[in-house]
Each structure stands twice: as C-alpha cells, then as structure tokens.
C-alpha cells in the first residue's frame, strides 16, 4: 500500500503546484499594475524589480492633477450607461420575441451583427459623423456601441425568457391580462436578475471599447481607454501614472464582474446558442 | 399559441404570487389591441436599429470602396470601379497581412486550446480555494484590454521588464519580445493567451462535467490507464465542447485589434500587421479611404465565409 500512497501524495502536490502556477500567470499583470501604481518613483525603473516598498498614492493624485481624468471618467460613464440603457430598451423586446415566437432569422441577423469586424465600420461611421457635424459628440459613440449592447441583451436574455414557463403567462391571460401586460407585469420582474447581469456584461464591453472611441471621440468626449492609451504616446512614458490610470479604469469593471461571474460565462457563451 | 387548460387552483396561486389584478381600463383595452402585433412590435426596434447602425454603414462602405475618396468633405470623389480591388489583389501587403492574421489566429487559438484543456482538467479536481481561483480566471476577460495591454507592454520591456526578470531565474537569455520581428506574433499570441485561455477552459470545463461518473468508473474497473481514459473517454466526450470553444475563439481572434495596436501598432517592419491593422492604418494613418474600404469589404467577407464554414463544422460535431 505504501508506494501507492506515496504516488497519491506526489500527484496531489504536482496538482496543487500546477494550479498555483496557472493562477500566478493570470494574476501577474494585475499584480504588476497594482504594485507599480503604488511604487514610489525611484523604485519603478529599478532592476531587479523591488518587491518591498512603502506604498504611495502620489501617482493617483498626479493622474487627477495633470489630466482632466474626472471628465474622461464622466465621458465613459455617460456613453456606457446610455448605450447599455438604449441597447436594452431595444434588445429586451427582441429577446422576448425570439424566445416566444422562435424568430430564427432575427437570431441569425444578431449573430451576423456580432461577427462584423468593427474596423470596417470606422470609415463610414466617421464620414457620417462628419456630415452630421457630430464628430466629438456623444451621439455617434452611443449609437456605435449599440452594435454590441443590443446583441448582448438579446443573446443572454433569450435563455432567461425561455426558462420562464409559458403557463405563467397563460394564467395571466386567463385572468384578463393582455400579452403586453403579462410581459411587463410578470415576465420582466421574473427575469430581472438576468437583465441586471446582462446589463453589467454589456456595460463592461462598452466601458472597455477602444476602437470606436479612437476614431469618433475628440478632446471633449475622450473616454478612459483612449485617455490611458495617450499615456503611452506621450514623450516620456510615465509608468507609475500609467499603472494608476489602468487601475482606475479596470477596478470598477472587475468589481462588477465578480458579482455577476456566474452569468458572465453564460454571457460569453451566448453566441453559442443554436 | 396553444393554451393548455389550467386548474383553477394553479392559476389563482400564480395570481397571488405575481400580484396580478385583472384590469379592464382604457389602457388595458388599448394594450390588448396591440397583442396580435406583438411579434412585429417587439422585433421592429432592433431591426430598425441594425438598419441604421450597421446596414447603412455597410452599404456606404461598399460604395466608398469603389472610389478614390477625399478626406475633405468638400472635394469630389473619383469613381474607380473595381480599381481598389485590383490594387488589393495585386498588393503584396494585403497577402502578407492575411498570412499574419492566420499565423496569429492559429498560434493564439491553438495555444488557448491546449492550455485551456489542461486548466479545465486541473480544475476538474477538487482543491481548497477552487472558487477563488475561478474568479481569478475570469478577471482577464473583463479587464479593460487597452489598460492590460499597456501593463503587458511594461512587462515585456527588454531591459527592466518583469518577463525578462523571470526568464533570468531559469537562466534563459533576454528577449526583445514584441520589439523583435521574429517574436512579435508569438509575443502578441502570449498576451492573447492571457486574455482568452480562461474562456476556453470554462467551456471545456462545462464539457467535462457532462461526463457521467459511471463511465469513468467502469473503465477504471476494466483496467484502463489514466492515459487510455483520457484518449478514449475524455477526449471523445468533450469533443463537441472543444469544437464550440475553438469556433467561438477563432472569429474574435481574426478580428483582434486592441493589444496589437497598443503594443506593436503592426510593427516592427510589418511583422504583426494583421488584416485588421492594415485596414485601420490605410484608413486613419494614410487616409486612403477608398482603398481601406475595399480592405474592409474583403475582411468582412473573409470573416463571414470563415464563420459559415465553422458553423457547418459545429453542426457536425453536435450531431451525435
């Protein structure tokens, strides 16, 4: 029995070690980001890297002092919240219609929308915004972000609506509700957790989106991803400031996503439904 | 829609639970008049939205691609017919960027599949802190890609970056990472691995959970080795999930933009200029709007064709 036990112990140890290695790999960039954002300037360019230091919040203060970071934050929030809200007002009914009436062509259309490379829409969108004199305004940004907030709302929620038994709605009809009333009064409240989770995922995508912002925003409407990118193109790369800015951008979505992590997988898989 | 008969008790129980009162006011009458049209009413807003935000721009893009298009809105465009497409077909840069796109996709998706499968197997076994580790795996997928790319850029810095420091532990020589033309695509694929391997792992993990314990147990009793178990039970049973995971990653990988743009901008020496990057740079760096639109049309067609082929592959994998 002894050699078998030993083999078991070694196997377990190897397993734990592998798990540690894997999680270490995925944590490493987050560790670098956080530690560089808190490192005093003198240690940032040190080699070999300094692991023990007295943390400072200077870089965070600098980011707000040197750049209009608060207004970037506001721009990102306005665009992402509007794109999510509008996308869901349009996407929720679409998801319900697909779930209840099996609209195969609408699903296919939504899948195609998800597939289109956004790079190819940049020129027409830029020219359209230019013609309408709306470059550097919120409207084109919010509208282009509907390209993913509507599909996210629809793809994730189809499943949630399908899970609600038809009998519930039928009971409401018998009691005199119209279909529309039954949808608003019964189906929507029951799917609320799903809607919230889907909204968090769609918001995260919009918050993270870089490509449209790169072309359609200007000084007035610059969003966080474009702002943090400009740290790199500045004459001298300020690693501390860059890490602090990256931390500020990433923190809110990471916190959100930890709350809805269960649904995130479902959201990412949403493209997979038949 | 069929209305199955309900027992009175069931429907009144539901009524109590959901708090529905039969209302017969004006609004209700109006709402019930909308009922027969609900299907159209609910799908119309999304159709209209797609027409405006996608349909029109796509047609406009195709139209621009037939022209030499000026940057200034006051200048006239010159009609070229299929001229831009002729340039594209005969351009070595186009074929190069197509090759780079495929190289990057193959490396990234292949690596993610192997590592993702391994991680799924690791996580299939119970261990303390597993749910925390799972949250850690999800974090890269949600973190802002541009921000994390900048952090990776910092880590890949040749003289003081963390990656070369870690390599020095094992005694390997320093690398230039993405700054070396030969290493640019592997370096970018490594970053892609960080972003998306967890996605692959989670899907394959879901597949592993569908394997019934009895199957594994009876194979063990029959004396199957761990390797044979993996080869003849695990792999065939999770195959549909693997195929799906590969498909779901391939399309986005073909379209990768953020970390390539941030870290190499397509360089050095075009070493990482994927079709996506080439299209962007032609449009917004050199302002060849017409030619860039032709590239955009080509890119869109390639993606749609690949998607259709992959969809067929999936239909076959899930058919039994």
Q: In this structure, how is the largest beta sheet of chain B organized?
A: 2 strands, antiparallel
Instruction: Identify the biggest protein-protein contact and residues per side.
Output: A-B, 109 and 100 residues
Reading the helices and strands of chain B in chain order gives: HHHEEHHHHHHHHHHH
Query: How many beta-strand runs of chain B?
Result: 2
Helix percent band of chain B: over 70%
Secondary-structure-based class of chain B equals: mainly alpha
Helical percentage of chain A: over 70%
Low-confidence stretches of chain B: 1-23
Oligomer: heterodimer
Shape of chain A: flat
| Total number of beta strands of chain A | 0
Beta percentage of chain A is: under 5%
- Number of helices, counting only DSSP H or I runs of 4 residues or more of chain A: 13
How would you explain this protein's 3D organization?
Helices cover 80% and strands 0% of the residues of chain A. Chain A is an all-alpha fold and 274 residues long. Chain A has helices at residues 2-38, 41-44, 58-66, 69-101, 104-115, 119-131, 138-163, 166-174, 179-208, 211-216, 224-233, 239-259, 261-268. Chain A has 13 helices and no strands. The relative contact order of chain A is 0.13. With 320 residues, chain B is mostly helical. Chain B has helices at 8-18, 26-34, 38-64, 83-89, 92-124, 130-142, 145-155, 162-170, 184-209, 213-221, 226-254, 258-263, 275-284, 289-317, and strands at residues 67-68, 78-79. In chain B, strands 1-2 form a two-stranded antiparallel ribbon. In chain B, helix 9 (184-209) packs across helix 11. At the A-B interface, helix 1, helix 4, helix 5, helix 6 and helix 7 of A face helix 1, helix 2, helix 3, helix 5 and helix 6 of B.
């Amino acid at each position: 029995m002894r050699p078998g036990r030993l083999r078991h112990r070694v196997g377990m140890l190897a397993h734990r070690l592998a798990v540690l290695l894997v999680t270490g790999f995925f944590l490493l960039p987050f560790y670098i980001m956080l530690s560089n954002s808190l490192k005093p300037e003198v240690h940032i360019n040190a080699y070999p890297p300094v692991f023990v230091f007295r943390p400072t919040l200077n870089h965070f203060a600098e980011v707000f002092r040197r750049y209009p970071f608060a207004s970037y934050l506001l721009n990102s929030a306005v665009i992402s919240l509007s794109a999510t809200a509008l996308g869901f007002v349009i996407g929720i009914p679409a998801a319900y219609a697909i779930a209840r009436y099996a609209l195969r062509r609408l699903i296919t259309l939504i899948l195609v929308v998800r597939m289109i490379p956004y790079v190819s829409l940049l020129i027409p969108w830029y020219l359209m915004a230019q013609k309408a004199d709306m470059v550097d305004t919120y409207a084109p940004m919010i509208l282009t972000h509907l390209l993913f907030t509507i599909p996210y709302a629809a793809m994730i929620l189809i499943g949630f609506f399908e899970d609600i038994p038809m009998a519930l709605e039928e009971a409401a009809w018998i009691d005199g509700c119209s279909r529309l009333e039954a949808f608003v009064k019964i189906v929507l409240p029951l799917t609320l957790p799903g809607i919230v989770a889907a909204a968090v995922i769609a918001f995260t995508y919009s918050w993270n989106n870089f490509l449209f912002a790169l072309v359609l925003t200007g000084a007035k409407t610059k969003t966080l991803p474009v702002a943090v990118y400009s740290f790199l193109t500045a004459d001298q790369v300020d690693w501390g400031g860059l890490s602090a800015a990256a931390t500020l951008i990433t923190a809110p979505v990471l916190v959100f996503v930890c709350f809805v992590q269960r649904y995130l997988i479902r959201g990412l898989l949403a493209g997979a439904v038949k | 829609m069929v209305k199955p008969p309900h027992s009175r008790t069931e429907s009144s129980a539901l009524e109590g639970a959901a708090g529905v009162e039969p209302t017969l006011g004006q609004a209700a009458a109006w709402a019930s008049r909308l009922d027969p049209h609900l299907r159209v009413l609910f799908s119309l807003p999304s159709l209209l939205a797609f027409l405006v935000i996608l349909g029109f721009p796509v047609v406009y893009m195709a139209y621009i691609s037939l022209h030499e298009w000026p940057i200034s809105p006051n200048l006239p465009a010159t009609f070229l017919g299929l001229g831009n497409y002729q340039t594209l077909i005969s351009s070595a840069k186009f074929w190069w960027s197509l090759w780079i796109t495929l190289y990057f996709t193959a490396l990234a998706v292949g690596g993610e599949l192997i590592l993702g499968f391994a991680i799924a197997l690791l996580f299939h076994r119970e261990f303390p802190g597993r749910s925390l580790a799972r949250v850690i795996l999800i974090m890269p997928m949600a973190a802002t890609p541009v921000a994390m790319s900048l952090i990776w850029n910092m880590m890949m810095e040749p003289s003081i970056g963390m990656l070369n420091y870690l390599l020095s532990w094992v005694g390997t020589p320093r690398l230039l990472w993405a700054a070396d033309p030969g290493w640019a695509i592997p370096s970018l694929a490594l970053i892609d691995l960080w972003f998306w391997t967890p996605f692959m792992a989670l899907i394959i993990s879901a597949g592993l959970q569908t394997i019934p314990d009895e199957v594994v147990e009876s194979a063990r009793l029959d004396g199957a080795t761990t390797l044979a178990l993996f080869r003849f039970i695990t792999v065939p049973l999770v195959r549909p999930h693997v195929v799906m995971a590969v498909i779901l990653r391939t399309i986005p990988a073909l379209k990768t933009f953020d970390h390539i743009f941030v870290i190499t901008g397509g360089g050095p020496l075009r070493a990482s200029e994927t079709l996506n990057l080439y299209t962007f740079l032609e449009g917004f760096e050199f302002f060849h709007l017409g030619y860039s639109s032709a590239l955009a049309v080509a890119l869109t067609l390639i993606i749609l064709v690949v998607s259709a082929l992959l969809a067929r592959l999936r239909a076959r994998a899930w058919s039994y």
